[in-house]
Amino acid sequence: MGWNSWDSYGTTVTEEEVLANAQVMHDTLLQAGWDTVVVDIAWYDPTARAHGYNENAPLVLDGYGRQLPDPVRFPSAKDGLGFKPLADKIHDLGLNFGIHVMRGIPRLAVERDLPVFGTPFTASQVADRDHVCVWNPDNYGLDQSAPGAQAWYDAQVDQFAQWGVDYLKVDDMQTPFHADEIAAYHNAIDRAERTHGCEITLSLSPGGWLPTTHVDFLRKNAQLWRISDDLWDRWTDVYQQFVRLARWAPFQETGHWADADMLPLGHIGLRAERGEDRQCLLSADEQRTLLTLWAMGRSPLMVGGDLPTSEALTLDLLGNPALVQVTAGSCSNAEIVRERVNADWADDETYQGDQIVWRADAADWADGTGSDHPEGVYAALFWTGEQAHKVSVPLKSLVGIGRASVDWELTDLWEGRESAPSDLGMEGAGEDRELVATVPAHGVVWVALDPR
């Protein structure tokens, strides 16, 4: 759970802006589980601009072709100090520090034919000019069959470890899927961790068309992997994640996470790749839907809005303790119902929306922390239509056959009420009872059910 600069600042974030977001996270969100700050792409490009990338950019590199922070945007990085001073400040706030990097080796390092640290080889000898990113011009790939290719990643990640980087988002890895590069980067991290006694989380991007057949390989080599291309503040983007998270939910396990992408919530687009400066265009109900779906699907939660200038609503939503409780403390998460609803059941022209239900068992956290809902069940009732809709689901499908006649206490996880509001409750009797709620347009009712 953390903050990433991409949705707000694209390629242009500054040290001052990073620290401002870190301070808000420390002051208002750390206690709710948010603990990581990530500087996204192009921190090494002194010509970085909003809405795109620069051909032939004069990247800031060291003598071995490794990227260094632009000292204008990141003044503490001057004199070759890299990100260590900034990482130290983030760590002093009790937070983790992360950065983004592209797959491969900078083209500029290849043009200069710089040496590969600790080897007799040069950049031109390890570069793969046939497998380059189609959307970013900064790098060539690395030819992993070439002597010295692994050493280049080893040296790059070793420098990151010396700076105190805890989290690495490595891009252009999965669309198309570069298994040799992923394994090489994992090996570089493993080497750095053993050398420096640190832990570095590896997050792979992007994730278009990612099949679940790669899951064993991904678990072996990474902690997070994207399962979609970039997501923005459009309902259509959120809607498309339902089916992806349903597909990946059975494969989620603590420490290895399918990632449904950043949360475009709060004040975004200040200098971003997409759209103009704005508060998130999703409605409040759509924002709750997004956060609930990510938590029930156990996706990592990485918010993209500029925290100091986001609306109070955003911080209130992010501060909901149920987010970390469910993401970190649930199991057997699954979409159990997904049905089209027509006004006339026989006429698809009268389609109104999809009724979608997720459920999960409450569980202890991996660190042994007890659940707030021992023996409880989490349930999320989603409605994708344009008007509010009454959703009902048999209680036995949520709590299990034979448990539906138990007296269950409902807690609305968004409203925080201990007793159910008037539009949420039970209907029927015994094993035939149903959980019912009026769900707003594009909205969700999210509850915990606890046996009394």
From TrEMBL:
Molecular functions per Gene Ontology: hydrolase activity
SUPFAM superfamilies according to UniProt: (Trans)glycosidases (SSF51445)
Annotated Gene3D superfamilies: Aldolase class I (3.20.20.70), Golgi alpha-mannosidase II (2.60.40.1180)
Keywords tagged on the record: Glycosidase, Hydrolase
Signal sequence annotation: none
Domain of life from the UniProt record: Bacteria
Entry's family note: Belongs to the glycosyl hydrolase 27 family.
Record protein name field: Glycoside hydrolase family 27 protein
Organism of this sequence: Bifidobacterium favimelis
